[in-house]
Amino acid sequence: MPIRRLDSILVDRIAAGEVVERPASAVKELVENAIDAGASRIEVSIAAGGRQLIRVSDDGCGMDAEDLSLAVERHATSKLADGDLGNIATLGFRGEALPSIGSVATLEITTRTKGAPHALAIRVEHGRKGPVTPASHTPGTRIEVRELFSATPARLKFLKSDRAEAQAVADVLKRLALANPPIGFSLSGDHVSGFSYTPAPDTPDGWLARMAQVLGREFRDNALPVDAERDGVRLTGFAGLPTYHRANTMAQYLFVNGRPVRDKLFQGAVRGAYMDYLPSSRHPALALFLELDPHQVDVNVHPAKAEVRFRDPGHVRGLIVGALKQTIATAMHRATTVGGERTLDVLARRAPSSGYEAGYASRNASWDWRQSPSAPAGMQDSAQTAYSAEVATPPSALLRDAAPAADTRSHAAGVEAQGAPLGAARAQLHDTYIVAQTSDGIVIVDQHAAHERLVYERLKKQREEQGIARQVLLIPVVVEMDGSDADRLLQRSEELAALGLVVDSFGPGAVCVNEAPALLKDGDLEQLVRDVADTLAEDDSTAPLSARLDHVLATMACHHSVRAGRRLTGEEMNALLREMEATPGSGQCNHGRPTYVELKLGDVERLFGRK
Question: For residue 391, is it within any domain?
């Protein structure tokens, strides 16, 4: 078959297959053009998920007759004044978006510059360009795309449902809205929950306000500011607390020089930064903005500009990992507010009937437990006194064993609640949970999860500073296990020795523990060795050495931590709370679960109908 030159309309339709994959792709191109035009308000409307109609209206600079005629021609753009593809500082720099869309749909553009007597319009129908004609419109531009892919029916077969396509459009618009807080965005149409984001100032508070609009109030309450710079590359934005995580990466947003991208390097860096705090099946929520010299990044490696390529990817990855780790460390003991809200959901009951609050106040004012018909005989001066918040004398010696683990009287605690973020310990429930009183609420701590994290951080600090202290065992511990597990331990014996666990071979299918970390010397060493063997079996051998060591350390810390079911004294509980406040990452255990939940006093009062 002889070679022939394709006609221009067919060429445009082939180009459309690269640039416009689905309705969301068309919306992205059109909205990016509106942003580059200096718009302060962008409105998007769709029908049938964008198949039947896409309408994008803005109040940008508009176009004159000459620009409007050129805008629908291939390889025509106002974004590359000097022709340098390595210095791209705009979003819609490619010259194929409008002609490509016009080749597979009906495209109508109505535009007006400020000060012009009237607007101008042009129509492109399936690649056939019409003349520029006068029209009526306010300053700005309105673009309507109707019957998308009607000229290429085969492409319609590969589109998803109207609802799925509409959700993709919403996701694209949300990403662009996150990158441009000073611009107002709105979306309306069928099969989608519309939204309207008001403009926000170009300040850290304004960026956080826009993130709250897009990602929700919970993200704002659990977000940590990120601001780091290294060798001309700057990273800013907000990262969610480790305990505020998701089942997928849909809540992760990265912007390179204002351009939303999906980059594998970025996702790997985020996973590495949060590896120490989250299980592998969970993902953090964050929005990060990377700014660097345009010559250091290639944004033209993907037809839809969804991926980028950095000249020095190692430098960028190191900046992201380091900045996120430092940010998480500054959070110290903070845990997500979602835990308290979930606790309230569990505790919440139906609202009390009308008149309850007033009756409660009058009854409570004169209520005396000693006058209650249910008051036990002979208890007035004994055990009940120990629980009274108003009695200054200690409980009698005869009933001392019945007293709670911590003194519940508000003035008797060794640490004042007002001076400590996690408050003062008041009681221990089921020998597992510590209840503390803060200045404006209560805190419930999982003693095992909290101490597990503290031991883990202590072991890591020892390893980094002078090496983990080891204790030689007077009587070595022999552990019998499967031959493959024993071989795996012996192969990693040098790594384990660096962690304070010295093991030697003790015949087929057995190892001998000669030394153990000093912090773990009183633990169950046999079970510890078995769990470490399981950890090494599950761990990815291609993971960095530091990650593998941290995984093993986490397993060790779990064995030494305070177990559920152990009764603690008031001094022990308060010491645990104080160490949590001084330890980075203590808001979550080694498995990513929160170590405590906090309830504000107002929330508790609402549970009882007092507010």
Answer: no
At 90, list the tokens.
Answer: 């705009």
pLDDT digits (tens, 9 = 90+) for 248-274: 888 899 999 888 888 788 888 998 888
Q: Which segments of 289-430 does DSSP mark as H helices, in order?
A: 313-330, 338-347, 356-365, 383-387
Mark which of 330, 353, 388 sits at the end of a domain.
330
Q: What is the tally of structural domains in the chain?
A: 3
Is residue 177 predicted with pLDDT exceeding 90? yes
Q: Is the pLDDT of residue 138 over 70?
A: yes
Q: What tens digit of pLDDT does each residue of 561-570 get?
A: 666 667 888 8
The whole-angstrom distance between residue 593's C-alpha and the CA centroid of its chain comes to 14
Judge residue 372's burial from the number of C-beta atoms within 10 Å of its C-beta, 0-12 exposed, 13-18 middle, 19 or more buried: exposed
Domain that holds residue 166: 8-197
Q: Indicate whether 419 and 545 sit together in one domain.
A: yes
Whether residues 484 and 579 fall in one domain: yes
Residue that the structure tokens 């390529």 belong to: 309
CATH number of the structural domain spanning residue 84 = 3.30.565.10
**Claim to verify: residue 128 and residue 253 sit in the same structural domain:** no
Element at 174 (helix H, strand E): helix 162-179
What CA–CA distances, in Å, run from 393 to 19, 390, 436, 472, 605? 80, 9, 22, 49, 29
Alpha helices in 539-585 (DSSP H): 545-560, 570-581
- The answer as to whether 301 is a domain residue is yes
User: Distance (Å, rounded) from C-alpha 97 to C-alpha 18?
Assistant: 10
For 73-97, the pLDDT digits (tens) are 877 666 555 555 555 556 654 446 7
Question: How does pLDDT run across 278-317, given as a tens digit for each residue?
Answer: 877 788 999 999 999 888 887 766 555 567 788 888 999 9
Given 275, 303, 330, the domain boundary residue is 330
